[in-house]
Amino acid sequence: MSNFYRQIASELTKQPIVLATVIQTSGSVPGRVGSKMFVCTNKQSVGTIGGGIGEAQIYAKALQTLTSGINSFVDINLSETCGGQMRIWLERWDKKLLPLVQQILMALETGNPATIVTPFDQVPYLIPESVNTPQLTTLGCFIEPLESMPSLLIVGAGQIGVLLAQMAHLAEFQVMVLDDRPELTLPARFPHAICLTTSIESALQALPQARSRYAALITRGIEQDVATLRSLLTYSMQYIGMIGSRNRSQQVFQALMQHGHNMNQLATIHTPIGIEIGAQTPAEIAVSICAELIQIRRSGKAQTLREAKLMLD
Known about the structure:
- This protein has ten helices and 15 strands.
- By secondary structure, it is an alpha/beta fold.
- The strands form three sheets. It has a six-stranded parallel beta sheet, sandwiched between helices. A five-stranded antiparallel beta sheet has the order 3-2-1-5-4, sandwiched between helices.
- The longest helix has 17 residues, at about 50-70.
- The radius of gyration is 22 Å and the shape is elongated.
- The two termini are about 30 Å apart.
C-alpha cells in the first residue's frame, strides 16, 4: 500500500487523478472491500479493484470523473461472470490532497495506528486510531485502517537474497539486507532495500518500527546461522525462517542448545524455509520463501487455490 500512495503523491504533483475504492460487495466478486486503483489524466491506471469487465467499466467512469469533477458511486453487476455485485466510490483528487497523502505514508511507514475517513460529501482525512476492517458507517462515510508494512530482515546477500528482496518489496515488505561482505551489499543489487554490513544486534536495532518483523536466514554457513539466531531468538519477531538441509538445521540447533536456548525457542524457527512447491532454482526458492512470508502475514493455508475451492464447494 505504501508503494501505491507514493505513486499517488508523485502523480498529484503533476496532474489530478481519480481514486476508485471498493466500498461494498455482495456475493462472489474479484475485489475485496478496500481495494483501490487510480486513473490519471494521461489515461494511465495504477492498482486494481479486481480486474475484468468491472474494472474496465470503472476505468471508463473514472475518465469521465476527471473531466466532470463530480464524485459518484458506481454499482457493478457481475452476476453473469463472478456472481456478485460491487459498489465503487469514485473521487477526484488533486494537489490539495498532497498533505493527506504524506500523512498516510508517514503512518504506513512508522506503523502508527491510523484510519482514513472518507465522507462522501467532504474531503477525506486521517484520524490517529485504528479500526479492524474497512467498512461503510451509518454516518455516511467509508472508513479503512492503514495496514503498516511489515519489515523483513534478509540475512545473506547471495543470489536468493537478491531475488527474495525484489519479491518481498513487491509484496509490500520493508526490506533490510544484512551481510558482512560489502561487495555484495551494493545498492545496485538491492535497489529497494536498506543494506547493512553491521552486526546482527545493530541490524535489529535499525529495523523499522513496524508492527510485524520477519527474518529470513539465507546465509553461507552454519557459523553465520548460529550467530544470527542467538540474537534473533531474544528479539520480538513474527517469523524466523532458515534455509538449509535437515542435517544443517540439526547442527545449528545443537549449537544453539549449547548456548542455552531451549526447544520451545527452537520450535519457532521455520526450517526448511518456504512453502513446498518443488522449488529448485534460486528464483523458485525465493518464490517459495516469499509465499511462506505471505502465508504467515495473512494467516493463510498452504494449499493450492484449487484445493481451497474444493473444500468450500
